[in-house]
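Posted in: Structural Biology > Protein-Ligand Complexes

Title: Requesting predicted complex, 6-sulfanyluridine-5'-phosphate in pocket

I'd be grateful if someone could produce the C-alpha cells for the following input. Sequence and ligand are given below.
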Amino acid sequence: MNPIITKLREIIAAKKSNLTVAADISSAEKILELAEKIGDKICVLKTHVDILDDFTSEFPKKLREIADRKNFLIFEDRKFADIGNTVSLQFSGGIYKIAEWADLINAHSIVGEGIVDGLRKVNKKSGLILLAQMTPEGNLFTEDYALKTVEIAKANSDFVVGFIGSSDKPEILRKIRQVAGDDFMIFTPGIKLAAGCDDLGQTYNTPEKAIQAGTDVIIVGRGIIAAEDPSLEAEKYRAAGWEANLKFKI
Ligand code: S5P
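-- Reply #1 --
Done. Output follows.
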C-alpha cells in the first residue's frame, strides 16, 4: 500500500473532511487565495495547471506552503494517457515539472500497464490515481474496463493509490469498491448538493449518493468555486461529506 493512503486517511480523520476542491481557475493568484480561504475544510486541492494563464515555478512552491500549513494534499489532474516513454517526459519535464510537487496525479488505464511503469520511472513523491470511470454523459467507460483497471492497480499497489469513480453509475462504483477492497481510495467528481448536469454533459450527484456507493473522497468544483462565498459553501460540502461518511462507512 502506498504510504500516501495512510497520510490522506490521517488528514481526513483529523479534519473530518473527505472533500477535495477542484480549483478550476485560470489565475494562479486566485487559486492561492482560494486555498487560503478553504484550506482548513479540505483534504485535497485539485489543480489543472495547464489552464493557468500565469503559471510560474513559484506557484507550486506557494501552494505547497499553504498545503503544509493547512494540512491538505495537492492533486494535479493531468490525466496522463500516452505511451510509457511519453508520460515519463510529461510527468517529469516541460514547464510544469509535475513530479516535483504533486502528491497525487492521475492517468487513463486505456493504454495498459505501461503507463504506470512510465510514470513510476520518474516518480519522486506522488501517488497515482487511475480513472476507472468518468462522469460525463455518454462516456465509453464500461464495467469490464473499470474492473480491469482495478486489476492494474492491484498489480501496482506500491504506486497506485486508488481510482476515479462516478456515482452516476453507482452499481459499477460499488463493484469497484468490492473488488478493490479497502487498500485503495476512491475519488468521485461530479458532486453537487443538488443533483443535475451542466450544459456540456457533466453529471452531478449528491455527496450522500457517492459515499453510499463506496466513494472515499468527493471532488467538488463549481459547486464551491462559483459560489458567492466559497468558504461557506466548502463548509456545507465538508459537513455533508462527513455526515455521509459517518452514516455509511464508519
Ligand atoms: O470523470 C471525471 C473525472 C474528473 S478528474 N469528471 C470530472 O469532472 N473530473 C474533474 O472534476 C474535472 O476535470 C473537474 O476539474 C472536476 C469537476 O468540476 P465541477 O466543476 O464539475 O464540479
